[in-house]
Specification:
Two copies of one chain form a homodimer. Chain A is mainly α and 212 residues long. Chain A has a domain of 139 residues: Tetracycline Repressor, domain 2, CATH 1.10.357. In chain A, helix 4 packs across helix 6. The radius of gyration of chain A is 18 Å and the shape is globular. At the A-B interface, helix 6, helix 7, helix 8 and helix 9 of A face helix 6, helix 7, helix 8 and helix 9 of B. The structure holds a DNA duplex (30 and 30 nucleotides).
Chain lengths: 212, 212
DNA sequence: CGCTAATCTAGAACAAGTTCCTACTCCGCC
DNA sequence: GGCGGAGTAGGAACTTGTTCTAGATTAGCG
């Protein structure tokens, strides 16, 4: 369960410290693994992502898979990082259009939610992994949280730093986002309920941004 | 993974429909199982709750354990129900004393948080189970959510029904509560951060109660 | 009391995540 | 071009949640 610092676990684009820079073949392997994971997850969710199958589908030995991603949770959290980066790019190209900051955040999250609805099984797999992650995945989960916070920060307004009050509001928004998503994914809330929860939380952002 | 309706899974004190009313020995077994679960969870958290050990410690065969609780997740969620009921009783005896509704909710949750801090491993086990639960545990998870909502509802003011706006606020509060707890339990947030998040979310309750 | 069905015990068996081992291959370097 | 070590393939082995089976025990009832 301990993370081996020498393993090629982190994203290559992060810190220059313990990341040994993957060779081309290694980067290709990593991509194959992530693609296989997405494929299996999209088909049957968390349970369908079986390490042996991921290994087989990505044409990599089981031991190699574990060298790249030290656990199933790490693998799925990395998949989420991957997806979030794509999403962030898309959102940068087409920013939300509302005038109120809170509404822009809500718009952004609803757009993200729509994207997740297209692959509900994949969403389920990633979110289950994210909330089930223990301390050994802290760094990766933190990175995911930072990505989401960035996405929301951009929606409030790209450029300036967020105020203290805005940051507090954003924290509650991300908590609500995660938790309401989980509730939806396990069939205990409707889509409109998710939307309502997001909207409620986003009023905090409007207030915080208005009172600056 | 399917719940067998004939199994003695539900709390005996609930609906009179499919619950066959446990005999004394059966109720004793159920209690032994729950106590063993708490004991193991308190020692080492989610991973330390191993079904074979629970069975052994509660002097019940493995098959019997599974008859009472169809999965480890069911078992831990039932443990949480148990704990929450105790908590609710305690809170009823000593209600929060603040004057503002939002502050009463915050006070209630912080008191609950302090209780959880006394057995962090147990808290971890229960919360991990709660968020990892899939559709087969919907009913039980819903019941837990209802309990928490009731606790918060009582804090707002026991007696009257909540308004629509209050309900929306309470939903965000519970989302924030769950998610910030998970963040704390996996070592990614400090205690004061948890408190701050709860306070932020609770301002929504103050507003909703003020605008009624 | 004696019967029958349900429940329980003990333990084997199975499934999937994880670890470990051995031989083979690739990479950087002399 | 050859060497040494890191990386990889292939697969056995181990762990723990879950299921299944066969033989006791118990509960309820005539």
């Amino acid at each position: 369960m301990t993370v081996d610092a020498s393993a090629p676990t982190g994203t290559p684009a992060s810190a220059p410290s313990p990341v040994p820079a993957l060779t081309e073949r290694q980067e290709a392997r990593r991509q194959r693994i992530l693609r296989a994971t997405q494929q299996l997850a999209a088909r049957g969710g968390f349970d369908a992502v079986q390490m042996r199958e991921v290994a087989e589908l990505s044409e990599v030995a089981l031991g190699t898979l574990y060298r790249y991603f030290p656990s199933k949770i790490h693998l799925l959290v990395a998949t989420m990082q991957d997806q979030l980066e794509q999403l962030h790019d898309q959102l940068r190209r087409k920013p939300p259009i509302s005038t109120d900051p809170g509404e822009r955040v809500a718009e952004t999250l609803m757009r993200t939610f729509k994207a997740l609805q297209r692959e509900p099984h994949l969403a389920e797999a990633m979110m289950r992994a994210l909330t089930f992650a223990d301390r050994s995945v802290s760094a990766e989960v933190d990175s995911v949280n930072r990505l989401i916070t960035d996405v929301i920060g951009d929606a409030i307004h790209a450029g300036r730093q967020l105020t203290r009050a805005e940051l507090a509001a954003v924290r509650v928004v991300t908590h609500t986002w995660h938790s309401t998503l989980i509730t939806w994914l396990s069939g205990r809330a409707s889509i409109s309920q998710v939307k309502a929860d997001i909207d409620t939380a986003c009023t905090l952002v409007s207030q915080a941004a208005g009172a600056e």
